[in-house]
């Protein structure tokens, strides 16, 4: 009897393993897409592009002029799919392979997924988006594709910018855009969000949401761009968060010049910068409350040759407590000055490949309230020699501009066919 049971279990296990090795959808299957099932018509409005972003570097890091390490890193590695389902629906998916993949409790999605949303275009002027999207703050450094930013300000580096929710866009005029948004103010629970968890005297909220109104405008044939936004939400009962952000950009010819102003006021320190400063109470650490952060960014890019670009960037940041709590007294805790200089080389005119040399110096000044907590915040330097590769893949069945070169790679994606019912090989899209 035991022998028969063992044989049955073995056969079942082998069949299960064999089944798991099979593709979800066979390349020979002809399963109609959801749109085709609903409408009963062939979907001719589909378009899809797949983009690959790779940023790798060799960096030498210094603390107080002492060498810490020299190491190779994969700073960013991202894959995204963007396109249209039909004339009314578009989609955007992007995943970063430099982030943890464990799902968060609140949005039930891996933190490595940055974008996962669907947009319904009611008309040329109105659209609604649902899913995981970016928090619509203002500022150029925050808004621009992160692959184009060598080193972020602390403000933008610590902002939780990819959140689940809904938003609406109204193109008031061809040069004026308004966005309205309601999303979660965090991805996970309080323990995942705050450095030392929720303070003991604070009760969790049942509505962890943040709302934003964002205004983008363009002037002088889009040479001048303004990106302003205001956000407000509840972190916990009696503890709110507010963002006021503004980006002012001049972009024309070889020049890109921008100045960003970023301000946040939070009942609970969600950035964790001030919360990480104390050294006198390490056995019982506390998450700071009633914090304020302010950042000013000034940047000048100049493309002095078709293959060469250089930029200078300066950043000033401050962090303070506006109301005493726990071990934290009222006052300004730290000020930070950061200077960056970078020279970039583009071997190809289409800018798909970039090599650059970057230097950053960051000076941190601790003020009396931080020194009273025995805080340590040393100055740092970094020299990086890095390369960035950014290319796109065109899915067959999608439209592309006449004259663009297309390279066949000979791969298939059966799962993608299940969603789109398009021919399976994919192509490199070369401008």
Describe the protein's topology:
Elements: H1 2-20, H2 34-39, E1 47-63, E2 66-84, E3 89-96, E4 113-121, E5 126-134, H3 140-143, H4 154-158, E6 162-173, E7 176-184, H5 190-193, E8 209-219, E9 224-236, E10 239-252, E11 255-268, E12 289-305, E13 308-321, E14 331-345, E15 353-366, H6 368-371, E16 380-394, E17 405-408, H7 414-420, E18 427-430
Antiparallel strand pairs: 1-2, 1-16, 2-3, 3-4, 4-5, 5-6, 6-7, 7-8, 8-9, 9-10, 10-11, 11-12, 12-13, 13-14, 14-15, 15-16, 16-18, 17-18
Shape from CA axes? globular
Query: What fraction strand?
Result: over 45%
The overall average pLDDT, rounded, is 82
CATH homology-level superfamily: Porin
| Helix-strand topology string | HHEEEEEHHEEHEEEEEEEEHEEHE
The percentage helix is 10-25%
- The CATH topology is given as Porin
Global structural class: mainly beta
Order of the strands making up the biggest sheet: 1-2-3-4-5-6-7-8-9-10-11-12-13-14-15-16
CATH architecture verdict: Beta Barrel
Instruction: Tell me the number of helical segments per DSSP (H or I, 4 or more residues long).
Output: 7
**End-to-end CA span:** 68 Å
Radius of gyration: 25 Å
Main sheet record = 16 strands, antiparallel, barrel
CATH C-level = Mainly Beta
Number of strands: 18
**Number of spatially distinct domains:** 1
Uncertain parts = 4-31, 399-431
Concise account of the structure shown:
The protein has one domain: Beta Barrel (Porin), CATH 2.40.160. 11% of the residues lie in helices and 51% in strands. It contains seven helices and 18 strands.
């Amino acid at each position: 009897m035991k022998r028969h049971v063992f044989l049955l279990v073995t056969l079942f296990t082998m069949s299960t393993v064999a089944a798991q090795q099979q593709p979800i959808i066979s390349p020979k299957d002809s399963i109609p897409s959801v749109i085709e099932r609903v409408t009963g018509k062939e979907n001719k409005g589909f378009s899809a592009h797949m983009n690959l972003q790779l940023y790798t570097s060799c960096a030498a890091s210094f603390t107080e002029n002492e060498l810490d390490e020299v190491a190779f890193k994969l700073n960013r590695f991202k894959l995204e799919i963007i396109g249209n389902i039909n004339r009314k629906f578009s989609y955007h998916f992007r995943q970063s392979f430099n982030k943890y993949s464990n799902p968060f409790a609140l949005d039930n999605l891996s933190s490595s997924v940055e974008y996962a949303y669907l947009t319904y275009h009611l008309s040329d002027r109105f659209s609604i988006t649902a899913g995981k999207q970016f928090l619509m703050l203002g500022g150029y450094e925050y808004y621009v594709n992160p692959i184009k930013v060598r080193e972020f300000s602390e403000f933008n580096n610590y902002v939780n910018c990819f959140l689940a929710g809904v938003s609406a866009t109204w193109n008031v005029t061809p040069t004026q855009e308004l966005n309205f948004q309601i999303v979660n103010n965090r991805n996970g629970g309080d323990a995942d969000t705050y450095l030392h968890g929720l303070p003991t005297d604070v009760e969790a909220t049942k509505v962890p949401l943040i709302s934003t109104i964002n205004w983008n405008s363009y002037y002088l044939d889009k040479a001048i761009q303004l990106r302003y936004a205001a956000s407000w939400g509840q972190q916990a009962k009696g503890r709110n968060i507010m963002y006021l952000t503004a980006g002012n950009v001049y972009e024309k010819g070889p020049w890109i010049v921008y100045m960003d102003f970023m301000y946040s006021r939070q009942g609970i320190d969600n950035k964790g910068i001030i919360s990480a400063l104390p050294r006198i109470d390490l056995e019982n650490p506390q998450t700071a409350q009633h914090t304020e952060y302010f950042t000013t960014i000034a940047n000048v890019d100049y493309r002095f040759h078709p293959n060469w670009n250089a930029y200078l960037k300066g950043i000033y940041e401050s962090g303070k407590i506006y109301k005493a709590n726990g071990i934290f007294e009222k006052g300004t805790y730290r000020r930070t000055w950061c200077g960056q200089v970078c020279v970039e080389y583009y071997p190809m005119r289409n800018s798909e490949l970039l090599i650059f040399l970057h230097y950053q110096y960051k000076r941190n000044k601790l003020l009396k309230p931080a020194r009273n907590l025995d805080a340590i915040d040393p100055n740092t330097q970094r020299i990086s020699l890095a390369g960035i590769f950014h290319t796109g893949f065109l899915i067959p069945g999608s439209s592309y501009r006449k004259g663009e070169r297309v390279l066949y790679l000979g791969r298939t994606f059966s799962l993608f066919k299940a969603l789109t019912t398009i021919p399976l090989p994919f192509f490199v899209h070369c401008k």
